[in-house]
Design brief:
Layout lengths: L6 H13 L1 H4 L7 H8 L9 E4 L5 H8 L7 E5 L2 H10 L4 E4 L16 E6 L8 H13 L1 E11 L8 H6 L2 E9 L6 E8 L9 H4 L28
Parallel strand pairs: 1-2, 1-4, 2-3, 4-5
Antiparallel strand pairs: 5-7, 6-7
The chain binds S-adenosylmethionine (SAM).
S-adenosylmethionine binds next to α2, α4 and β2.
Length: 232
């Protein structure tokens, strides 16, 4: 929790965690220090920014502090309780209530407009196929030099080496803080070859249109995407 996080945000967050601990995966919103680390490389010149799992909007506020116009933000949040609050709080941002695993299939971001993706998603509580669908879908929405920023409470990158390699990506730790509940590390995920305009949807997208599943799963058809639509 940050000094700028209001008491009602904390209460909202805690209630959401109680009702759906796997989806929310933290008892309190991220701290200010983590928000700064997550957004430290983002510049207004990057253009539109996509945020996944914004919750109460701690990283969203940090993006605004860095000079990103609110109208350049697209916020993808699964929880209705958070989406309602985000729409109210950031009226010029585009708030989309959906499962981030559908990014590559939803048809909303096909012109790959984004300069970067900031993710507050709880990847550690998601199965590998779902992580592959989210990360692969996110890179489909990004410009060639775009990067995906992810924090984790774990000791290593929350996206496994096999998923990164299957998508032509690499992960680099760019910081960490103990001034967060719990302490967290921050990773930049970027293309191994930024000149590849697409990371090659065929690498992870099945012909049946079930993004991120068949090609990544060790045995096609047995992939576990977790709870459908990441709902409760
Ligand atoms: C650990 S909280 C992080 C919230 C905020 N970014 C922060 O750092 O305070 C995870 C957030 O991701 C959202 N979320 C979880 N699974 C999701 C999914 N599949 N698609 C979109 N949002 C999801 C949760 O509702 C919650 O807002």
């Amino acid at each position: 929790m940050t000094t700028k996080t209001s008491c009602s945000d904390f209460v909202q967050f805690f209630r959401s965690w109680v009702s759906d601990p796997l989806r929310v995966a933290a008892v309190a919103p991220s701290g200010e220090r983590l928000a700064r680390l997550m957004t430290q490389e983002i510049e207004p010149l990057d253009g539109p920014i996509l945020e996944l799992g914004p919750g109460t909007g701690v990283f969203t506020r940090a993006l605004l502090t860095r000079g990103i116009p609110e109208s350049a933000l697209t916020l993808v949040e699964f929880g209705e309780e958070f989406a309602v609050r985000l729409r109210d709080r950031f009226p010029e941002a585009r708030v989309v209530q959906m499962d981030a695993a559908q990014l590559g299939q939803c048809g909303l971001f096909e012109d790959a407009p984004f300069g970067a993706v900031i993710s507050g998603l709880p990847l550690l509580s998601m199965p590998p196929a779902k992580i592959a669908a989210i990360v692969g879908g996110a890179f489909e929405t990004m410009k060639p030099g775009g990067a995906f920023y992810q924090f984790t409470y774990g000791p290593r990158c929350p996206i496994s080496r096999s998923i990164l390699e299957s998508l032509g990506l690499k992960g680099t730790r760019i910081g960490g803080t103990v001034r967060n509940i719990p302490p967290a590390g921050v990773y930049r995920i970027s293309r191994q070859n930024p000149l590849e305009i697409s990371i090659g949807g065929s690498k992870y997208r099945s012909t049946e249109g079930n993004a991120g599943i068949a090609a990544y799963a060790p045995e096609a058809g047995k992939a576990d995407m977790g709870r459908p639509e990441a709902s409760a």
